[in-house]
Write a structure and sequence with these properties.
The chain has 2 helices and 2 strands; from the N terminus they run αββα. By secondary structure, the chain is of the alpha+beta class.
């Protein structure tokens, strides 16, 4: 009985932790720039370089009804 309860508690904790991590990751807005040579640059949403591009992307998504 104790093993079953411990297993159920472990599963519930794992599911809860996965949900928290997924929500946290969904809130982060990033701009990934891929170059022809295979390089990638990832900018956070708060950087001045990413701001104008991300605002244009939000407008495009709003217009398409995807937001």
């Amino acid at each position: 009985m104790r093993k079953l309860a411990a297993g159920a508690l472990l599963v519930a904790g794992s599911v809860g932790g996965a949900r928290v991590l997924r929500r946290r990751a969904a809130r982060r807005v990033r701009l990934d720039v891929y170059y022809d040579d295979g390089a990638m640059l990832s900018l956070g949403g708060a950087t001045p370089e990413a701001g104008p591009v991300l605002s244009s992307a939000r407008e495009a998504l709003d217009a398409a009804g995807q937001s």
